[in-house]
Amino acid sequence: GDKAFKVAKLSSITGKRWPVVGKRLHEEYPYIEAEVKYAMREYACRAIDVIARRTRLSFINVHAAQEALPRVIDMMAQELGWSEETKKAELAHAEGYLRTEMGLDVKRATEQDVQLNFTKDEINYYMRRFKSLDVENKGYISINDLRRYFKNVGVRIPEDQLHEILSEVDLNRNAEVDIGEFLQLMSAIDHGVIVHSRFAKALEDNEEKLKKITVERSGGGV
């Protein structure tokens, strides 16, 4: 925004041909270390202030946020004079946030390949739920599918939250949720490995909303 020049003044030389200035917190995302410095001068006093509020990296890719954490904490420790004990406490606090609020546990649990032992009826039920989003029978759910689904059921969800919901289940980070990832999530929930999933909760909430549509709104009735 209008503070870009001030952030740029805090940037350091990368030592690379490109970009020349501005070391990235994570190679795959355009957030630079200078933003951490600027955030601390504005308001940031904890690691989650940087990864969640300043850069919002945790919302975009929770794994990338976790990978960037050590560098963020090192920079904050140098600027704020943190001890090694404080650094460890900050790391634990930030990782706890990523697990409980950003869905890191969801990804880890589903990556454990929870055994799929659904009955035939359960498989059919979950396939119907999957196809309620994958209406084009592509074999995967994309951000456009989520956007269309929530629009059809009359629910307005901010764009960043749509990406968060999809990212929570997208284990291979290709911006798509295939049937395998979907069933792994459902199985993990069924086994109690996962107790909170925004993806599953969003589907359940809107299925309930559809059930409550009145006869008058549906255009029928006696």
UniProtKB/TrEMBL annotation:
Listed GO MF terms: calcium ion binding; glycerol-3-phosphate dehydrogenase (quinone) activity
Entry-linked InterPro entries: DAO_C, DAO_C_sf, EF-hand-dom_pair, EF_hand_dom, G3P_DH_FAD-dep
Class of enzymatic activity (EC top level): oxidoreductase
Domain EF-hand: 121-156, 157-192
Signal peptide residue numbers: none
Pathway: Polyol metabolism; glycerol degradation
Any one biological process term the GO annotation gives: glycerol-3-phosphate metabolic process
EC id: 1.1.5.3
SMART domains: EFh
Keyword Oxidoreductase included in the entry's annotation: yes
PANTHER family recorded: GLYCEROL-3-PHOSPHATE DEHYDROGENASE, GLYCEROL-3-PHOSPHATE DEHYDROGENASE, MITOCHONDRIAL
Official protein name in the record: glycerol-3-phosphate dehydrogenase
Organism this protein belongs to: Arion vulgaris
